[in-house]
Amino acid sequence: MSTTDDGDALPGIPNVGKADLDAMVEEERPDPRDELADVEADTDLGIAMAEDAQRVARGELTGDEYWEKYDEAAADEFGAAYRETPNPAVDAGDQTVSTETAESLSCTVGSMDAVSTEAAQVEGDGSEGGIGAGDEKWGMVIDLQKCVGCDSCTVACKSENRTPPGVSYNVVMEEEHGEFPNVTRTNVPRPCMQCDNPPCVQVCPVSATYKMDDGVVNIDYDRCIGCRYCNIACPYGARYFDFGGDYDDEVDGAGEVTSPEYGVDRGPREDGESPIGNIRKCSFCTHRLERGEEPACVETCIGDARNMGDLDDPDSDVAKMADSSRAFQLKEDEGTDPNVYYLK
After folding, report:
1. Angstrom distance (rounded) from CA 251 to CA 232
2. Each residue of 194-229: b (16+ CB within 10 Å) or e?
3. What is the pLDDT of residues 129-140, one digit of tens each?
4. pLDDT by residue for the chain (344 residues), tens digit each?
5. Model's pTM, two decimal places?
6. How far apart are CA 314 and CA 321, in angstroms?
7. Fold classification of 18-343 (topology level)
């Protein structure tokens, strides 16, 4: 991946190509049929919708064609949950479905702006200044030469967001190369990519997943029905289902600690209460950004490998790094245009 002027790999840093990194990501993704095996929603429908949502991101299918194709099936499968929610693709200034098509569908015509406003999940308005000043497009740049694979980001994220067993918003993918004593290791941290063209938003039949103006893709737990179609639509394997587990066996009273996600106090974990039974994922620690703080993973990174900032500000460090010759995105061919960049 990184080399000296002579073309040799730098000590401890393998000369790994982007295709190899993309393959590491693909290995993290769940098998679609296994993921949907215990879900009441139709498995074949979910797989078809997920695959076509990825085609929309790649520009191979339009949003109009997508919802014209799946409107009847989604209405039959999800009933009122689908019919009573605003169509997920009608957005002022950024439409993936035309108003004409939306009005022909079985679901209510509306916009994702309305969905995000109704959710009322994010506390504050960013008016206090600092990193959450207001009009940013949030992006993260991760320097692979600085990542030491310590997993401090994983631990910090679990601690900050109180995620249950089986749910880790930040994982570090690892792969060893060579034989002792000539061994190198690839460490690739993988949060949610916060895609500009997110298949997870496209596929959601109830508009529970939505994209904010600041570039962050969030989830309305109260709207989510747990169909997991978005899990298999995500090209990065960055979504998880909350089965209701907790760490009470390891830490007494762990299930009583409230998660700060989205600035909503949901109280102790109880069966049948959100976020149990919902999809969960990294939100760039939206609740911290709104307080003018960095995400927990960025603040905790001991190698200073993670950088957070405004991609729309050409003078910001993050924008400059994302525009450098070292920068790349994972699985670029998917057309998702992630707001997470890596430095090789």
Report:
1. 32
2. bbbbbbbbbbbbbbbbbbbebbbbbbbbebbbbbbb
3. 445 446 899 999
4. 555 444 444 444 556 788 999 999 999 899 999 999 999 999 999 999 999 999 999 999 998 899 999 999 999 999 999 998 876 555 544 456 777 888 888 888 776 666 665 554 444 444 344 454 468 999 999 999 999 999 999 999 999 999 999 999 999 999 888 888 888 888 999 999 999 999 999 999 998 998 888 999 999 999 999 999 999 999 999 999 999 999 988 888 888 888 889 888 888 889 999 999 999 999 999 999 999 999 999 999 999 999 999 999 999 999 999 999 999 999 999 999 999 999 99
5. 0.89
6. 10
7. Alpha-Beta Plaits (3.30.70)
Q: Which tokens hold the place of 167?
A: 């749910």
Strands 138-143 and 306-310: antiparallel
- For the chain, the structural domain boundaries read 18-343
Contacts 24+ apart (CB under 8 A), 240-243: 240/166, 240/167, 240/168, 240/169, 240/279, 240/280, 240/281, 241/278, 241/279, 241/280, 242/164, 242/167, 242/275, 242/276, 242/277, 242/278, 242/279, 242/280, 243/164, 243/166, 243/276
How does pLDDT run across 24-60, given as a tens digit for each residue?
Answer: 999 989 999 999 999 999 999 999 999 999 999 999 9
